[in-house]
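URGENT: need a sanity check before tomorrow's submission.

F., can you look over the Phosphonate ABC transporter substrate-binding protein record below? I want to be sure the sequence and structure line up before it goes out.
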Amino acid sequence: MIRTLLLASVALSMSSAAFAQDVSVLRIGLDGGENEADQLRRSECVAEPLKAATGVSEVQFFPSPDYNGVIQGLLGGTIDIAIMGASSYAAIYLQDENAVDPVLTTQQEDGSTGYHTIMVARADSGITDLPSTEGKTLGFADPDSTSGYLIPSVALPTELGKPIDEFYAETGFGGGHENLVLGVLDGQFDVGTTFGSGQGEFSEGYTSGNLRIMVDKGLLDMDDLVEVWQSPIIPNGPLMVSNKLPADMKEKVTAFFKGLPEADFECFDAFTAGGYTNFVDADQTMYQTIIDARRSVIGS
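Structure tokens as predicted:
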């Protein structure tokens, strides 16, 4: 009886291992931070070289209208790879710390691996600094955005001297960073929180981040905005790989992306939305402060 059970267990283990190794499709989640067409256009260059590097027959892209769609896909195993903000990784970790590994993050030209929340208002609004936003309407980018919600939620009450909901007349969500900035320009919000490297010139949208992406796409003239507040530095978000993939496939995926800046910088630049020079190693410890912040503010 024991021998039969052992043989059955071995057979099941061998069958599971064979199944686990048989990965024919890799699925990349796109988080809805900008419009779907632009995200797909920027990302499609990785498909063919990733197939060649990993041996899969197909690479699929799954755009989501919001961050949570990709978070749930990574938790449920329907998405294998995604590059997102630190708060999104924290959301996954707090629900299942073994669901994904943060394997890489982006690096700026000066070697730094961080960015900032940038709070902006219309240049003609009369708003010039944080105190002048009192009684106004504040827009956040997305509930799962690090720079667009989590960090402002943690840092602003100290800066303002009172809770956010007491300082502002109303708060809301813009539906992603691009839409949030457009909402500020259209008068939906008086001020809004998006992100940028904080390096280079504000007049150019900084060297990287949503403002720079919108400038490069011709969606934004920085003369129409004024910066109201900049947060402390935030760790750049990780490229995450699902632990439902077998170990050898995870290694191939990680090696591919780590080598991408050197192999095809134009593709790396497009995939990461521009302004970065390299991928560098990342791990869970880099994001512990964000995990703790999310646990205290959101709970999960």
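My own read: The domain at 25-108+236-298 is CATH 3.40.190.10 (D-Maltodextrin-Binding Protein; domain 2). The chain is about 40% helix and 20% strand. If you see anything odd, call me.
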